[in-house]
Amino acid sequence: SGPFGFGERNIQISRSILSRIEDVKVHCFSVSKQEALEYKNLAVNDSRFSYSTLENPVPFQEFLEKFKIAKIYVGISKSDGLGTSFLEALASGCYPIQTDTSCGDELIRKGAVGKIVSSKISNLDLVNSIVDIYYDVKALESAQQANQAFAMKYLEQNEIIRKSLQFYNSESIEELLGES
Questions:
Q1: Could you tell me the pTM of the whole model?
Q2: DSSP category for residue 176
Q3: Distance, CA of 6 to chain centre
């Protein structure tokens, strides 16, 4: 299911995590309609699982609340840029487990606390990584403080990008400079 077949992989990984960690809650985000049906079926069978899709969106405030209580962010993809959810996960203090296919792995190399995994990682190895981190209280605490600070620093460094985008979306240079 999904354009890259990740829907079924997400379901398998979610089921494995739910079976191995009793007190865990899992939330999956997806854009695929087919995944939505699979997620709905899992959510009906296990109250610890929740999901949001384009068909079943979560209001932004609720989305942020989910990140606030989350401990681990898992970003698996075959190809990706820098997703906003990755930055939101860092800003909320999550420990990211990110494939080596996005800009997220670059941020981990630059100082964010997290783990980079191959996009070809097996489901079992990925689940083992998630479970290991879940029980590593020191790593989770370290990530919370370090990643929140890193995200703030990173976002400040990108102020020039924000201003550039504002410039290109403005009507005129005078508007940008507040002289209109």
A1: 0.74
A2: H
A3: 14
